[in-house]
Design a protein that fits this description.
Distance between the termini: 34 Å
Helix content: 10-25%
Largest sheet: 7 strands, parallel
Number of helices: 7
Strand content: 25-35%
Number of strands: 14
Shape: elongated
Radius of gyration: 22 Å
Number of domains: 2
Order of helices and strands: HEHEHEHEEEEHEEEHEEHEE
């Protein structure tokens, strides 16, 4: 009985969206596997929309390209006047010979006349995974995720939060393209072999997540010979790599860092606060 009532509520909710709303924003920073089973059926009912902003990260069998957007969005929303989006789609791949190129993706957007469409396709053989990032330009969101070495630069004055994956040799380009960056996450298990010509400044950065990055990135940001940070930067990192990289905290200037640790993790040693003067805990 309860399940049936919930289904009726969801049905009424979808009907109200499709008949009343003329503007709709779908935004999620969490990965989803439900693009085809939940999101597409919803859009098929929203025939009266005039403005749509779509912002998703999804896993599916094929990339979301221009043909997919025309087939399941534009062909149903005949009243749509404005369509802006950023879509990061991930797929599994095992045979690079059958891979889709960025040129292939761009060809599917030939009919999108209102906006320039930017796209990047990246393959990660060690993970047997590929991703395609597409978005309508100009870019107006406050975050930019899954940046790889293909990132061409540019100016993104609205962006405050970014994430990096793949090998990264472009910290200087990143700070130039995202001058107001406040949050940075690195998702990369490879080491950083970047040779610095000059110290890189991060004047607005206040949150640095290195939990999924190679330990070399701790050196990248925490040695004052490589980077200049503002005061009170929150650092999210495992304790073990942090201790090893900094030679038991003797090679580092930590006075600007607030170290975040998980409440369920091991207790920090007493001398830890001699180097990191501020610590705080969080829950997963």
């Amino acid at each position: 009985m309860f399940k049936k009532e919930e289904q009726e509520k969801n049905k009424m909710f979808v009907q109200s969206l499709s008949t009343l709303n003329k503007w709709f924003l779908l935004h999620s920073k969490n990965d989803t596997n439900d693009y085809d089973s939940l999101i597409v059926p919803l859009f098929h009912r929203m025939t009266n929309l005039e403005k749509l902003n779509l912002d998703i990260i999804c896993y599916r069998r094929t990339f979301i390209d221009g043909n997919e957007l025309k087939r399941n969005i534009l062909n149903y929303m005949t009243r749509l006047k404005t369509f802006t989006f950023i879509i990061c789609s991930h797929i599994d791949f095992y045979d690079r010979n059958n891979s889709v190129s960025n040129e292939d993706i761009q060809l599917t957007f030939q009919d999108f006349k209102d906006h320039q469409i930017i796209s990047f396709v990246d393959y990660f053989p060690e993970r047997k995974e590929a991703q395609c990032l597409t978005y309508s330009d100009p870019y107006r969101l406050i975050y930019y995720y899954s940046i790889t070495n293909q990132f061409p630069g540019g100016s993104f004055k609205y962006v405050r939060e970014i994430s990096l994956i793949d090998e990264h040799e472009f910290f200087l380009r990143i700070t130039q393209s995202f001058p107001l960056m406040e949050k940075l996450s690195i998702v990369n298990e490879k080491n950083s072999d970047q040779q610095h010509i000059s110290i890189i400044e991060y004047p607005h950065l206040f949150s640095l997540n290195l939990k999924e990055g190679h330990p070399d990135y701790l050196e990248e940001f925490l040695l004052d010979t490589r980077s200049t940070l503002r005061m009170n930067v929150y650092l999210h990192s495992d304790y073990g790599p942090l201790k090893k990289v900094t030679d038991n905290f003797t090679r580092i200037n930590c006075s600007k860092i607030k170290y975040q640790y998980c409440k369920s993790s091991r207790r920090l040693p007493k001398h830890f606060k001699d180097y990191f003067f501020q610590t705080c805990s969080f829950k997963f």
